[in-house]
Input
Amino acid sequence: MGSRSGLFLLALVSLLCAPVLSDLVISKVDRRIDLTSQIARITSTLKVENEGSELVKEVLLAFPDIQAKHLAHIAASASVGKGKAKGSSTSYAVQSVNPEGMPASLTCYSVTLPKGLGKGESLTFDVLAVFTHALKPFPEEITQADIQLLVYQDTAHYLSPYAVKTQTLSVKLPDARIESYTRLDKTKNVGSEIKYGPYENLPPFSYSPIVVHFESNQPFAVAEELVREIEISHWGNVQVTEHYKLVHGGAQSKGEFSRLDYQARPHVRGQYAVRRLIAKLPPRAHSVYYRDEIGNVSTSNLWSDSKKTELEIEPRYPLIGGWKTAFTIGYGLPLHDFLFQSDGKRFIDINFGCPMNDVVINTLIVKVVLPEGSRDISVSAPFPLKESKETKFSHLDIAGRPVVVLEKTNVVPEHNQKFQVYYKFNSLAMLMEPLMLISGFFFLFVAGIVYMHVDLSISKSSASYLAKLQWDEVRATIQQIQHIINRGLVILDKLEASLRDLSRTGDIQACKAARKAADGSMKELSKEIKPLLAFLQSSQQASHILPKVEELVTKERDLEEKLMVKHSTVVDCYDKKYGGKEIENRVASQQQKITALRLEVDDLLEYIDEI
Output
């Protein structure tokens, strides 16, 4: 807690040196801080006066950076006073600005005055600032039996670049039990409310840090990520699917958790746990479901009437500090309640935020899935969003359905406002899917009729069956010829090996014996191949492959002859005692022919294999 106070003191030092920016004066400020939930809401009613001579068109609002980083929503509207309807107030535009001369530790926003403020004129308006994660658990870890205590820090004086004539502050707490709070002049504690002021004649950038330490057993349901998918069907339905990743963002749990103690005394043992959530769905929501990774969750209740639909969700287990869960809810909506037309375009008008008011969302992603064929897509939203586009494919889609992806961080219930997605769509495109189904069934029935009336069986007396038998015989014959050719190549390889042995040992007689054996074997193979060739020559099924087979046999015989000639030449040279170089020169040309023939034989064998 001391380190947090130090940050406020550092900010205070920088603020005291800041200059006055205009002749505006805040004659009265009433601030009301609501800390009854995990979301801090500060409502400030400001009455501003122009004491200068020039027209003033904007009013600056200032927040310390350490507070502004938790700012989720800010809005300004004309003060309507008591007894008047809030809906009748006029909203003012608020935008982030960076005026010159402001301290670096401040974040500023500008409230635009539509008519401006002339000399001596005054205006009263309300400013709502909503903060998330501004309440810090202290202590940060508690047991199941402990109560949850929170710390909140702010300033008792209204921080403004203008002088303040009078101001008050009230801090509304969820419970009357207060551990401690900063006591200043004119401080009063009444039940669960702490009041500061009134303080008068405060200079610009007046700052007086306060710290409130109080009990709050409100559940801190935080959605780390929520993905809402809104799928539009022009056949009459809007399907909404919401995927939640929920965590209890309060004081972290330490020690063991006793389910027995929790069920016996739920308001004492684990009183700050998230027990259930209420989702306020649009009227006429139907087909509602609630499930998680395991399956359907039956611990839910649904109430609906003509004005609202409420879904009570109870997780499978209570969520205490730091515990997480993930689940999905889905429901359908009637299309005519949300789809409208304007200026030749259709547009969907639906809520942006989460249907659960008690949930803070760190990252919200809304995906609007439009019908296939939608074009000229645009988005209108009441606050800045990160926008992108993607495509989703579903049943019977051809080009896919365009998806508008909208992303926003730090989302609170105040963001649950209407937004619009405009697009153009040709109604004739709705007929595409029915026509595809009709065409598919039509061709299926036609195929069935053809199948039932066509005889696809193969008769043993049919020409196709006899042709298949003949081709099988041709294929078997070719395989036998290939086998004989391969045997002949092995014999010729052995004959060449005998020449290598001759060069190594000089045994001419052994080389001649190898030649004689090779002659005999090759003659036997020639006898075997003749009837096979004769069969192929007589078969019409072999007409397309017969030339290659005959070429293969011829090339193999040429290879045999060339190798026999080479063998005779080498043996004669050895008989005449020629040297190695002279022998190589004599057989060089023969060897080139042998190598070329061998490659041709191998290529023909490979070609016939592929056929």
About this structure: The chain has a mean pLDDT of 85.
